[in-house]
Structures are given as C-alpha cells and as structure tokens.
Write a structure and sequence with these properties.
Shape: globular
Mean pLDDT: 84
Structural class: alpha+beta
Oligomer: single chain
Helix content: 10-25%
Radius of gyration: 27 Å
Number of helices: 14
Length: 620
C-alpha cells in the first residue's frame, strides 16, 4: 500500500513523483482489500496508523495496470456499475499499490507525554518520531464515528475542559498543551489520564464510551470523511458520534454483494459486449441488434446474434416486475432466485465447452441413501465462479441489515466500477425436503424460537440505526435459521472429515418462501480451491454419512447444558443455542457474521426433542 503524495514534503517522492516511487508501508493480500482493509478502513503498519484512501481523484485512484477489470453482468447491473476491478497486488513486482493517509492525526509521545497532531511533533521526514525525545509516536487509541460512516478525531481538548465549562468552545483557545499518560494501576480507561497545561484538572477517559458521552459535551458529527482527502468538503450531519477503539471491528464493516456466474453469462463471451450492453438493451428487434453489432464490430462479431438475443431475453426476464420500481433488496433477491433455479436444474459439463465457468451435475449414484434424512436434490457443482464486490461500508451498523442511507460511499462521485474479487472453485448444493419442512416450521415451539431471534435481531438493528423507521424487517424465519445452522455444522464436519480448513469453505444460503437450499463451496482460490475433494462429499452415500455425523456432533457441546439451554447468546441475543464450541465458524465462512444461529432447531432440546428438524437421525 502506498501513501498519497504529500503536499509539503515526503521522503523519496514529491507531489509530482511517479506513483511507484512513493514509499511503501506494508503489504496486504488482494482479498483483504475487499474484506478487511477496504476503502475507509483503518490499518496498523508497525507502530503507525493509516486510513485506506478512496477510489477517485488524482491522488487516490487505483492504477488501471495494477487493477485489471473483471466482469459479472448480473451483479454489475444490480449495483449500477459497468464493471469491477481487482485490487492492486501488494508484492515486489507491483509498481503501484493501494493509497493510504495517516489517520488518526492525534499522536502522543510516550516519553514527554505530549498529545498533539502528528505534524506538530516536527518528526523527521519519512519517520514517526517525537522531534524532541526521538521516541516512536503512538497514534491515538480513540476515534469517533457515526452511523452515516463519518470518522473523526477524538475531541481530547473538549473532554479535558468539560469540567471547566469550556467544552463547547473552540479547541485550543486556552493556549495550553495537552498531555496523555497512563497511571499503570490497571488496563482500564480509568488509568488513561488526559491533562492540559492551562491548569484544568486532569481527567481520565472513563465514561468516554457512553452512548451520550459526546452529546453531553454538546458535540455533533462534523461529517468528515478522511478517506476521501482534504479537498472533499465535509457532509452536513446532525448525528451524535460515538467513541470507538481505533482497532474495533465497529469502525469499519464491508458491505459485500456477490453473485455466481450462471448461464447464459458464465462462458465469459458476453464480457466482450460489456461496453455496449446498455445500448443493446434499448433495441427491440433482432435486426436492430444485428445492425448495432455490425456497426461496432464489422462482420467479425465476437458473439453470434442469436446468443446476444438470448442474453437480452434472460436479462429482461429478471426485470419482469419492473426494475425501476423495485428496491435494491428485491433485485438482489431476484438474483439469488435465478441462482437457485440454475443450481436445481444443473448445467451438464458434456454440453458445454471448457470455457464454461459453471458446471453443476446430479450425482452418479442413487439418491436413495438420503431417504429419511430430510435432505433432497443434492447437486455437484464441479466448477463455479463467484464475484464479490465491495459496494460500500458501514460504521456502528450491521452491514447485512443497513439500508443504503447508512452506507458510506467509496467515493464522492458516481463510479463506473467497484473493487471486487473473484473466486473459482467447487461446491455441493442441497435442499431440504419441502413436505417435511412445511410441517416442521409450523410447530409452535419452532416458531417461538425463531420469533425470539427475529425480535432480538430487529431490536439490535433499530438500536444501531439513527432512524429506526428506515430499518428493513429482519429476514429471520425458521427455515432461514435451520439452513444457516445446518451449513455451519456441515462446514465443521467437512473440515474434520475431508481435510478442508473451515476458513477455506463458505456458505451461500437460499432461504425464502420458494427456496430452501444451501451451497457450501470453496471460498479461496489456493490449492484448496478446485481439486475435486469437496465435490466428492456430495455423492449421496457420503453426504448421508456426513449429515448424520454432523447432527450427532451438534447434539452435544462442551458448554452444555448452558449452551443448549441459553435464553439468548451472541451479539444482542441474536443467537440461541450457539457458541464457539459448537457451531460458530471463521467470519470469512459465514454470510451473517455468526449470528442468527440455533443448534436446537437441528437436534432439539432435552425438554422438547421435536423442535429439532433432524432429531430423528439421533435415534438411528
């Protein structure tokens, strides 16, 4: 990653220096630039702290050479962009990288205890040292943020002067120097002490994390967006910010949207038309489409006209209910519906060329081995391609439930592209037996457990949002929690039985009124990606054994009876019988950040075994 050119001085590079001459500060994997250290996130490099810059502008753009384009038409249309780009590589062969800016600017010196902005320490060029003590400066541990995604420095001056009645005045009016020290008595906030040389009493940081702490000081969010640079004006914002630890996960959560490449888009041939697709969509007849193609490409068409017409028909089918009047959530669910249909029907390898990116076939052996398990319709996904795009990010909010109003943009301008990554691998798709599912999800005890999770989830979303009336209804239903928990126990089972690390597998849930399936697939593109080991687990005999073993393993937990009898667990009570000792996974494997789980819906409880969908398997 690379800091942007400095306006004054920069070691090794001036403001007009080539991008590849800028000093490098660490390296991250391409996937981390989407999932962990994306635009607007804070990243620690050695003893320094930086914020990842935005995507546009003279200083912030990603080099086109270092960020090759990738295409996924269905996802791009939903996100209203033309294409996606891979993040620049961070290696010795990369000329450029991801730009970063120093943040927070407030630093302290551990020797002289002064607390001031980084530039005021007169640090030597290219270093982060106190100009007097020559000690390494320590970035502020605390920042403030609001639900709209704004990020700012912690108001130390207002905090220490609040007792003197000057907290609402302009910072620095007293002319004193701030200092920060620790008493060493404990590791709590009470031991972190802030003082000012003007003579006000020394205060601790205790209480600074209260929800109303900054409101009591009369402070409101200033609407600052440091990831976009100093030339971008602050937004108007009336929210009250919250104090956060600089390394807290609440400071930055990605809003990721993904899609599988499915026919007729999965052979990659339509990528050649990406630049002209909006123009083709406006044409009605085959003759008009053919005329447009020949005008652009001449007689050597990259895609036959008949195939272009089929692509246009497939796209218009997804828009059948009027794309302009549907919300983003409705259009994104429609995208999942099409994936579910294709996973159910399959896509035989023998009928396609080796360029096909989606191969989904029925198992070779009889599905009779799955009789009585509650599982039906397994499909072997021998090849798949998933594109995951960073749409935006949130602060102090759940990225899975945040409305677009609470999503912070990656740029202050409309982008034609978004950063994304692609994963090629394999997977196993399976469905729940619909008759058995319909009976089970109507049981009062089942509905009651799902209702408790849904209420807790809805309450948590409303607490995070500044305007609870804009929060979408919680997606929790009995089948959703059942499928989610089943995916977790299957991933755990296959990580033990088939040799996959759990972090190399990922779930994709299809839980709606007309869908009841899940896809477990390889989530990395390394050697665990597509060697056929996961597909082999989908043969009915092996799958039935894995289901039974996973259910038996889920029937007990080392934290029982506390785990299975828990009235609420997880963040805000959004789990019931679920903990790290039984069903939780690495965050990269879960679509819902390890919430909305309940092991009891799989295996039942000691008091009510019938609440478990797979309880019968424990007696065979």
């Amino acid at each position: 990653m690379t800091p942007p050119p400095a306006r004054r001085r920069r070691s090794g590079a001036g403001g007009s220096a080539p991008a590849h001459n800028l000093p490098r500060r660490g390296a991250i994997r391409r996937a981390q630039a989407i999932t962990t250290y994306g635009v607007g996130s804070l990243i620690a490099v050695d003893h320094e702290s930086f914020i990842v810059s935005g995507l546009d502008g003279a200083d912030e753009h990603w080099s086109s050479d270092e960020a090759p384009r990738i295409h996924e038409r269905r996802l791009a249309r939903i996100l209203k962009v033309d294409y996606f780009r891979l993040p620049p590589a961070s290696d010795e062969f990369s000329r450029d990288g991801i730009r970063v800016r120093r943040f927070p600017l407030m630093h302290s010196c551990p020797d002289c205890t002064e607390l001031r902005r980084h530039r005021d320490f007169n640090s030597p060029p290219g270093k982060s040292l106190c100009g007097t003590c020559e000690a390494d400066l320590v970035p502020s541990r605390f920042v403030i943020a609001c639900e709209a995604g704004h990020l700012d420095e912690f108001p130390y001056w207002h905090w220490v002067h609040r007792a003197a009645g000057r907290a609402t005045t302009t910072a620095g009016q007293c002319g004193g120097t701030l200092r920060l020290r620790t008493s060493g008595r404990s590791s709590s906030l009470r031991s972190i002490l802030v003082s000012c040389s003007c003579g006000v009493p020394e205060v601790s940081m205790e209480g600074s994390f209260r929800k109303s702490a900054l409101k009591d000081l009369g402070l409101r969010c200033r609407g600052t967006r440091p990831w976009l640079g100093t030339s971008v004006p602050a937004e108007s914002c009336s929210r009250t910010p919250r104090t956060l630890q600089r390394g807290s996960s609440a400071v930055w959560q990605p809003v990721l949207k993904s899609a599988l490449s499915i026919p007729p888009w999965s052979d990659g041939r339509a990528d050649k038309l990406a630049e002209y697709w909006d123009r083709l969509r406006e044409l009605d007849s085959r003759a008009e489409v053919e005329g447009c193609l020949k005008f652009v490409f001449g007689d050597d068409l990259p895609v036959p006209v008949d195939e272009v017409m089929a692509l246009l028909a497939a796209e218009r089918e997804e828009d059948a209910t009027g794309d302009e009047v549907r919300s983003f959530d409705h259009r994104y669910r429609a995208l999942r519906n099409k994936e579910y249909e294709r996973l159910c029907t399959g896509n035989d390898e023998r009928e396609h060329s080796h360029h096909e990116q989606f191969i989904c076939e029925s198992p070779l052996t009889s599905p009779a081995a799955l009789d009585g398990t509650g599982i039906t319709g397994p499909m072997l996904v021998k090849k798949l391609r998933e594109v995951r795009a960073l749409k935006a990010f949130t602060r102090l909010a759940d990225p899975n439930s945040a409305t677009e109003a609470y999503e912070a943009a990656l740029s202050d301008k409309r982008l034609r592209w978004l950063p994304a990554m692609e994963v090629r691998g394999e997977g196993v798709f399976l469905r729940l037996a619909t008759d058995r599912l319909a009976t089970w999800e109507k049981l009062p005890a089942v509905m009651n457990r799902a209702r408790r999770i849904r209420s807790a989830h809805q309450r948590l979303m409303e607490e995070w949002a500044s305007d609870p009336s804009q929060v979408q209804p919680s997606p929790v239903t009995p089948r959703m929690v059942l499928l989610h928990t089943l995916a977790h126990v299957l991933i755990n089972e296959w990580s033990l039985d088939a040799g996959y690390p759990a972090a190399a597998l990922r779930e994709r849930l299809y839980a709606d009124e007309d869908m009841a399936g899940l896809l477990v697939y390889t989530a990395t593109s390394d050697s665990a990606g597509s060697l056929g080991g996961l597909v082999a687990q989908g043969e009915p005999g092996k799958l039935a054994d894995a289901i039974r073993s996973a259910i038996r393993r889920a029937s007990w937990c080392s934290a029982d009876p506390l785990c299975v009898e828990a009235e609420a667990s997880g963040s805000g009570g959004t789990n019931l019988a679920a903990c790290h000792a039984c069903v939780m996974l690495p965050e990269t494997s879960c679509e819902h950040n390890n919430i909305l789980l309940d092991r009891a819906l799989l295996v039942g409880t000691p008091e009510n075994p019938d609440v478990g969908f797979f309880a019968d398997l424990l007696h065979h």
